[in-house]
Amino acid sequence: MASAGKTDKKQEALFAWEGKDKSGKIVRGEMRAMTLTVVNTTLRRQGILPIKVKKQRLKGGGTITEKDITLFTRQLATMMKSGVPLLQSFDIVGKGHSNPAVAKLLMDIKTEVETGSSLNQAFRKYPLYFDPLFCNLVAAGEQAGILESLLDRLAIYKEKTLALKSKIKGALFYPVAVLVVAFIVTAVIMIFVVPQFKEVFKSFGADLPAPTLIVIAMSEKFVAYWHIMFGSIGGGIYAFFYTWKRSVPMQISMDKLTLKLPVFGDLLKKAAVARWTRTLSTMFAAGVPLVEALDSVAGAAGNHVYKVATQQIQGEVSTGNSLAVSMQNAGVFPSMVLQMVSIGEESGALDSMLSKVADFYEQEVDDAVESLSSLMEPMIMVILGTLIGGIVVAMYLPIFKLGAVAG
Question: Interior CA angle at 287 toward 285 and 289, to 5°?
Fold first, then answer.
């Protein structure tokens, strides 16, 4: 069945149409459909008399990122709060988007809504881009008649989550990038520069210092086995990420390990708590029942340790325990978070307290990233200075020694 669905999607085409509405006014638009007959039938169902329908060439290219979905959510929320009808909002955002893939996705969703699906049902047909949390909030907004308000809350949630992820990636990317550059520079020196010095030293006719001999020996290994070294490192990295994406046990082990890393582990814990509390605050404020909201929180936790803890909390809450006590039993939340949640439950302002906790930990992540950058810069400079400087000094020692003898 799944393969048949995929085949149908591939056969869909984009049609540009022109027609007359019930008042006789000329209207135009675009629609994705299997055949020309489907377009004509759909238009008549909408009270439009087709005059001209033409198959369009589909533009290719472009990938849909989380940033694209976040921007779309914000644009849709803004237009609906301004009173723009839903379908017209999709038209404006879709036709004005520079990414053809996003434009195609939005036109597909618009077509689903035009043919009778609710907005959350249309989103659920594209789980790659719209997770259960997104769809559940949209469904809650449609049921309560406050879709524009829920979309605004959802846009804020996605913007804050995206900013948090960006900061974490930036903090982890910087040292990795510098170490990769250091390895490449070292390899270039070992393969191309040191052999030139070695040829010069052959004419000295004297014993070379131990550091120089060590560097030359390392260079000889690099020259002889560089293809094996680079192949092994590249293959190892590829195998690691390939296995990591496909092996659940490995993902669980890595999630546990990353939380125990020195310096970085604390940063990742704060980020996980920020995402957890932000997600639960958003769901709870939208009127989603707590037990049901915890389903989405578990999926959005971003770490297996917090996912398991959330499932445990959900089980305890469903049997009558308070959220604060259940979170304490999970053993992965700081005492400040537990106290704030307890106060929120007692005062009936749980969503507000969770939002404040999320704000606090997002600020903590900001501060931790800045501190980490300040700490990493001198450490990286020391590592690079020791590595590159050590090689340079080792290669110049014989020259200094020769100068001293000649002097």
Answer: 110
Residue 377's SS3 state is helix
Calculate the CA dihedral of residues 392, 395, 397, 402 and round it to 10 degrees.
-130
Report the C-alpha gap between 49 and 22 in whole angstroms. 8
pLDDT digits (tens, 9 = 90+) for 221-254: 888 888 888 889 889 988 988 888 788 888 888 8
Element (H, E) at 250: helix 248-259
278-296 pLDDT, tens per residue? Answer: 889 888 888 888 888 888 7
Cβ proximity of 69 and 130 under 8 Å: yes
> Considering the entire predicted model, what is its pTM?
0.67
Q: What is the DSSP letter of 193?
A: I
Does the pLDDT at position 201 exceed 90? no
Query: What 3-state class would DSSP assign to 35?
Result: coil
> Is the alpha carbon torsion for 49, 52, 56, 62 positive or negative?
negative
The pLDDT-based confidence of 325 (bands split at 50, 70, 90) is very high
What tokens does 74 get?
């914000």
Q: CA distances (Å), 11 to each of 34, 58, 62, 377, in order?
A: 6, 12, 19, 54
Rounded-to-integer distance, Cα 71 and Cα 230, Å: 40
